[in-house]
Design goal:
This protein is mostly helical. The protein is 69% helix and 0% strand.
């Protein structure tokens, strides 16, 4: 018999990060599903179709929302795999503009300053989350 592992309480930050990324991932997958349904049912004009294809490309056809869910679940379960998942998300989001495709971001309307602020906020949050998970991993909180 193996001794019972001591239960570790999840900090409020683990709860908040997990809930945020779970919601973000679920809404992203729902958006991808809606876009796929609309594309394959037809009835959309060429401009809408291009916008929908841009949205699918920006989510890597649903891979990024699925990775958000996987990262949220692994962090909530306090697994070591959370760090590579969130680091991979950061790398994918940083590398996404490098790939050829439409230059504008789908679903975002606003001035250039607002766009830059939104990107900086999003990348900043993800970087802080990666650092936090790395520290959890270093202190042995993740198994």
């Amino acid at each position: 018999m193996s001794p019972a592992q001591p239960k570790t309480r999840r900090s409020i930050w683990v709860w908040l990060i997990s809930i945020f990324y779970m919601g973000f991932g679920v809404s992203g997958l729902m958006t991808v599903a809606m876009v796929l349904i609309l594309l394959y049912r037809g009835g959309a004009g060429p401009e809408e179709i291009n916008s929908m294809k841009t949205l699918l490309q920006a989510s890597l056809w649903g891979v990024l929302p699925a990775a958000n869910i996987a990262g949220a679940v692994s962090l909530f379960l306090m697994r070591r795999m959370a760090f590579p998942i969130f680091t991979g998300l950061l790398i994918a989001r940083l590398a996404l503009p490098v790939f050829p495709g439409p230059s504008s971001s789908p679903g975002f309307s606003g001035t250039t300053t607002q766009m830059i602020g939104g990107y900086l906020l999003g990348y900043g949050i993800l970087i802080v989350v990666c650092i936090y998970i790395y520290r959890l991993r270093q202190t042995g909180m993740l198994r």
